[in-house]
Design goal:
Helix content: 25-40%
Order of helices and strands: EHEHEHEHEHEHEHHEEEEHEH
Structural class: alpha/beta
Number of domains: 2
CATH topology of the largest domain: Rossmann fold
Shape: elongated
CATH architecture of the largest domain: 3-Layer(aba) Sandwich
Number of strands: 12
Largest sheet: 7 strands, parallel
Number of helices: 10
Length: about 270
Protein backbone atom coordinates (compact mmCIF):
# COMPACT_ATOMS: atom_id res chain seq x y z
CA UNK A 1 0.00 0.00 0.00
CA UNK A 2 1.32 3.41 -0.96
CA UNK A 3 0.77 5.93 1.82
CA UNK A 4 1.35 9.65 2.02
CA UNK A 5 1.55 11.65 5.23
CA UNK A 6 0.07 15.13 5.67
CA UNK A 7 1.82 17.06 8.42
CA UNK A 8 4.96 15.10 7.56
CA UNK A 9 7.31 17.55 9.28
CA UNK A 10 5.38 17.49 12.55
CA UNK A 11 6.08 15.23 15.48
CA UNK A 12 3.30 12.78 14.64
CA UNK A 13 4.09 12.82 10.94
CA UNK A 14 7.72 11.98 11.59
CA UNK A 15 6.82 9.05 13.84
CA UNK A 16 4.43 7.66 11.23
CA UNK A 17 7.16 7.91 8.61
CA UNK A 18 9.66 6.23 10.95
CA UNK A 19 7.38 3.34 11.88
CA UNK A 20 6.25 2.84 8.27
CA UNK A 21 9.81 2.70 6.97
CA UNK A 22 11.10 -0.78 6.20
CA UNK A 23 7.70 -2.49 6.36
CA UNK A 24 6.98 -4.95 3.57
CA UNK A 25 3.30 -3.97 3.38
CA UNK A 26 3.76 -0.18 3.16
CA UNK A 27 5.55 2.12 0.73
CA UNK A 28 5.93 5.80 1.61
CA UNK A 29 4.94 7.63 -1.56
CA UNK A 30 4.42 11.22 -0.41
CA UNK A 31 4.96 13.79 2.32
CA UNK A 32 2.74 16.86 2.50
CA UNK A 33 3.13 20.14 4.37
CA UNK A 34 1.64 23.63 4.30
CA UNK A 35 2.76 26.16 1.69
CA UNK A 36 5.80 28.17 2.88
CA UNK A 37 6.67 25.55 5.51
CA UNK A 38 10.44 25.64 6.15
CA UNK A 39 10.73 21.87 5.56
CA UNK A 40 9.49 22.05 1.95
CA UNK A 41 11.93 20.41 -0.44
CA UNK A 42 13.70 18.41 2.26
CA UNK A 43 13.75 14.63 2.13
CA UNK A 44 11.02 13.32 4.45
CA UNK A 45 13.16 10.42 5.63
CA UNK A 46 16.14 12.56 6.48
CA UNK A 47 13.91 14.94 8.44
CA UNK A 48 12.42 12.00 10.36
CA UNK A 49 15.87 10.61 11.12
CA UNK A 50 15.55 7.42 9.05
CA UNK A 51 17.85 8.41 6.20
CA UNK A 52 17.22 9.37 2.59
CA UNK A 53 14.04 7.79 1.14
CA UNK A 54 13.70 9.87 -2.02
CA UNK A 55 10.41 11.47 -0.95
CA UNK A 56 10.63 15.27 -0.82
CA UNK A 57 8.23 17.23 1.37
CA UNK A 58 5.84 19.17 -0.85
CA UNK A 59 2.75 21.36 -0.64
CA UNK A 60 1.28 19.78 -3.80
CA UNK A 61 -1.88 18.26 -2.33
CA UNK A 62 -3.38 16.94 -5.56
CA UNK A 63 -0.12 15.44 -6.79
CA UNK A 64 0.55 13.77 -3.44
CA UNK A 65 -2.93 12.24 -3.42
CA UNK A 66 -2.64 11.12 -7.04
CA UNK A 67 0.47 9.09 -6.25
CA UNK A 68 -0.81 7.35 -3.11
CA UNK A 69 -3.45 4.80 -2.13
CA UNK A 70 -4.16 6.39 1.23
CA UNK A 71 -3.33 9.64 3.02
CA UNK A 72 -2.68 9.74 6.78
CA UNK A 73 -3.48 13.26 7.97
CA UNK A 74 -2.09 14.88 11.12
CA UNK A 75 -2.05 18.50 10.02
CA UNK A 76 -4.41 21.33 11.01
CA UNK A 77 -8.22 21.59 10.88
CA UNK A 78 -8.48 23.76 7.75
CA UNK A 79 -5.91 21.66 5.89
CA UNK A 80 -7.55 18.41 7.00
CA UNK A 81 -10.96 19.44 5.67
CA UNK A 82 -9.39 20.32 2.31
CA UNK A 83 -7.45 17.05 2.30
CA UNK A 84 -10.64 15.05 2.80
CA UNK A 85 -12.41 16.95 0.01
CA UNK A 86 -9.54 16.34 -2.40
CA UNK A 87 -9.23 12.69 -1.34
CA UNK A 88 -12.92 12.18 -2.02
CA UNK A 89 -12.60 13.84 -5.43
CA UNK A 90 -9.78 11.45 -6.36
CA UNK A 91 -11.36 8.38 -4.75
CA UNK A 92 -8.52 7.98 -2.26
CA UNK A 93 -8.80 6.63 1.28
CA UNK A 94 -7.88 8.93 4.16
CA UNK A 95 -7.18 8.54 7.88
CA UNK A 96 -7.62 11.77 9.87
CA UNK A 97 -6.07 12.19 13.31
CA UNK A 98 -6.21 15.98 13.42
CA UNK A 99 -8.11 17.60 16.31
CA UNK A 100 -9.45 21.06 17.11
CA UNK A 101 -12.19 21.19 14.46
CA UNK A 102 -14.99 23.72 14.77
CA UNK A 103 -18.53 22.40 14.40
CA UNK A 104 -18.66 23.85 10.89
CA UNK A 105 -15.37 22.22 9.94
CA UNK A 106 -16.44 18.89 11.39
CA UNK A 107 -19.67 18.99 9.39
CA UNK A 108 -17.75 19.75 6.20
CA UNK A 109 -15.27 16.98 6.94
CA UNK A 110 -18.00 14.39 7.52
CA UNK A 111 -19.92 15.42 4.42
CA UNK A 112 -16.84 15.12 2.23
CA UNK A 113 -15.61 11.98 3.96
CA UNK A 114 -18.84 10.11 3.32
CA UNK A 115 -17.99 10.13 -0.41
CA UNK A 116 -14.83 8.05 0.04
CA UNK A 117 -13.20 5.69 2.58
CA UNK A 118 -12.59 8.00 5.50
CA UNK A 119 -11.62 7.19 9.08
CA UNK A 120 -11.70 10.02 11.61
CA UNK A 121 -10.61 9.66 15.23
CA UNK A 122 -9.50 12.23 17.81
CA UNK A 123 -7.04 9.68 19.17
CA UNK A 124 -5.50 6.77 17.26
CA UNK A 125 -4.22 4.94 20.35
CA UNK A 126 -5.76 1.49 20.69
CA UNK A 127 -5.79 1.89 24.47
CA UNK A 128 -7.67 5.20 24.36
CA UNK A 129 -10.26 3.75 22.01
CA UNK A 130 -10.81 0.92 24.44
CA UNK A 131 -11.16 3.60 27.14
CA UNK A 132 -14.03 5.16 25.16
CA UNK A 133 -15.88 1.85 25.40
CA UNK A 134 -15.04 1.37 29.08
CA UNK A 135 -16.32 4.80 30.15
CA UNK A 136 -19.57 4.15 28.30
CA UNK A 137 -20.04 0.88 30.20
CA UNK A 138 -19.19 2.47 33.55
CA UNK A 139 -21.47 5.48 32.97
CA UNK A 140 -24.42 3.29 31.99
CA UNK A 141 -23.81 0.96 34.92
CA UNK A 142 -23.46 3.64 37.60
CA UNK A 143 -26.11 5.98 36.27
CA UNK A 144 -26.67 9.65 37.17
CA UNK A 145 -25.82 9.37 40.88
CA UNK A 146 -22.07 9.65 40.21
CA UNK A 147 -20.41 12.98 39.40
CA UNK A 148 -18.21 12.80 36.31
CA UNK A 149 -14.97 14.76 35.95
CA UNK A 150 -12.36 14.50 33.18
CA UNK A 151 -8.80 15.81 33.51
CA UNK A 152 -6.49 15.84 30.48
CA UNK A 153 -2.80 16.78 30.41
CA UNK A 154 -0.63 17.54 27.38
CA UNK A 155 2.63 19.21 26.40
CA UNK A 156 2.93 22.98 26.37
CA UNK A 157 2.94 23.18 22.55
CA UNK A 158 -0.56 21.76 22.10
CA UNK A 159 -2.78 24.42 20.53
CA UNK A 160 -6.33 23.22 21.25
CA UNK A 161 -8.01 22.73 24.62
CA UNK A 162 -9.60 20.62 25.80
CA UNK A 163 -8.10 17.80 23.78
CA UNK A 164 -10.17 16.08 21.14
CA UNK A 165 -9.90 12.92 23.23
CA UNK A 166 -11.34 14.64 26.31
CA UNK A 167 -14.20 16.02 24.23
CA UNK A 168 -14.87 12.55 22.85
CA UNK A 169 -14.83 11.03 26.35
CA UNK A 170 -17.29 13.68 27.52
CA UNK A 171 -19.52 13.06 24.52
CA UNK A 172 -19.57 9.29 25.06
CA UNK A 173 -20.47 9.76 28.74
CA UNK A 174 -23.14 12.35 27.96
CA UNK A 175 -24.78 10.00 25.49
CA UNK A 176 -24.64 7.11 27.95
CA UNK A 177 -26.31 9.27 30.62
CA UNK A 178 -28.79 10.83 28.16
CA UNK A 179 -27.45 14.35 28.68
CA UNK A 180 -26.93 17.22 26.26
CA UNK A 181 -23.18 17.85 26.29
CA UNK A 182 -23.67 21.43 25.08
CA UNK A 183 -25.36 22.30 28.37
CA UNK A 184 -23.80 19.68 30.69
CA UNK A 185 -20.12 20.30 29.93
CA UNK A 186 -18.18 22.62 32.25
CA UNK A 187 -14.77 23.54 30.85
CA UNK A 188 -12.75 24.68 33.86
CA UNK A 189 -13.97 26.51 36.95
CA UNK A 190 -13.00 29.87 38.40
CA UNK A 191 -14.42 32.14 41.06
CA UNK A 192 -17.67 31.76 42.96
CA UNK A 193 -19.29 29.15 40.72
CA UNK A 194 -21.74 27.78 43.29
CA UNK A 195 -22.44 24.16 44.09
CA UNK A 196 -21.75 21.52 41.47
CA UNK A 197 -24.89 20.69 39.52
CA UNK A 198 -25.82 16.99 39.20
CA UNK A 199 -25.83 17.01 35.38
CA UNK A 200 -22.39 18.58 35.03
CA UNK A 201 -19.58 16.80 33.18
CA UNK A 202 -16.38 18.63 34.13
CA UNK A 203 -13.51 18.82 31.62
CA UNK A 204 -10.21 20.31 32.81
CA UNK A 205 -7.06 20.90 30.72
CA UNK A 206 -3.46 20.90 31.99
CA UNK A 207 -0.56 22.04 29.80
CA UNK A 208 3.14 21.76 30.55
CA UNK A 209 6.52 20.45 29.54
CA UNK A 210 6.62 17.44 27.24
CA UNK A 211 3.57 15.48 28.48
CA UNK A 212 2.58 13.26 25.54
CA UNK A 213 -0.98 12.75 26.72
CA UNK A 214 -2.84 11.71 29.84
CA UNK A 215 -6.58 11.36 30.41
CA UNK A 216 -8.27 10.60 33.71
CA UNK A 217 -12.02 10.01 33.97
CA UNK A 218 -13.44 10.08 37.50
CA UNK A 219 -16.84 8.80 38.59
CA UNK A 220 -17.35 10.21 42.09
CA UNK A 221 -20.01 9.75 44.75
CA UNK A 222 -20.17 9.90 48.52
CA UNK A 223 -17.68 7.43 49.93
CA UNK A 224 -15.96 6.25 46.74
CA UNK A 225 -14.33 7.26 43.50
CA UNK A 226 -13.68 5.19 40.38
CA UNK A 227 -10.85 6.38 38.09
CA UNK A 228 -10.06 5.21 34.59
CA UNK A 229 -6.65 6.47 33.42
CA UNK A 230 -4.77 6.29 30.14
CA UNK A 231 -1.20 7.58 29.87
CA UNK A 232 0.62 7.78 26.56
CA UNK A 233 4.36 7.44 27.16
CA UNK A 234 5.36 8.17 23.55
CA UNK A 235 3.74 9.22 20.29
CA UNK A 236 4.37 5.75 18.91
CA UNK A 237 1.06 4.59 20.40
CA UNK A 238 -0.77 7.06 18.15
CA UNK A 239 1.42 6.40 15.11
CA UNK A 240 1.02 2.62 15.38
CA UNK A 241 -2.74 3.04 15.71
CA UNK A 242 -2.85 5.28 12.62
CA UNK A 243 -0.90 2.71 10.60
CA UNK A 244 -3.19 -0.09 11.79
CA UNK A 245 -6.21 2.04 10.86
CA UNK A 246 -4.76 2.64 7.38
CA UNK A 247 -4.15 -1.06 6.75
CA UNK A 248 -7.69 -1.83 7.93
CA UNK A 249 -9.37 0.95 5.94
CA UNK A 250 -7.78 0.32 2.55
CA UNK A 251 -9.97 -2.73 1.82
CA UNK A 252 -13.23 -1.29 3.15
CA UNK A 253 -16.11 0.10 1.07
CA UNK A 254 -16.96 3.79 0.85
CA UNK A 255 -18.08 5.18 4.22
CA UNK A 256 -17.18 6.99 7.41
CA UNK A 257 -15.35 4.98 10.06
CA UNK A 258 -13.59 5.45 13.39
CA UNK A 259 -11.22 3.45 15.58
CA UNK A 260 -14.11 1.65 17.23
CA UNK A 261 -14.69 0.01 13.82
CA UNK A 262 -11.02 -0.97 13.59
CA UNK A 263 -11.15 -2.63 17.01
CA UNK A 264 -14.52 -4.30 16.39
CA UNK A 265 -16.03 -2.60 19.45
CA UNK A 266 -19.22 -1.24 17.90
CA UNK A 267 -22.24 -3.11 19.14
CA UNK A 268 -20.15 -5.06 21.66
Amino acid sequence: MKIAVSGAAGRMGQRILTLSSGRSDIQISGALEAPNHPALGKDAGELAGIGHIGVPITSDREGTLRDCDLLIDFSAPTASVENVKKAAAQGKAIVVGTTGFSEEQRTSLMEAGSATRCLVAPNMSLGVNLLFRLVEIVARSLGPEYDVEIVESHHKMKKDAPSGTADKLAGVIAQALDRDLATAAVYGRHGLVGERQPQEIGVMAVRGGDIVGEHTVMFITEGERIELIHRAQSRDAFAKGAIQAALWLISKPTGLYDMQDVLGLKGS
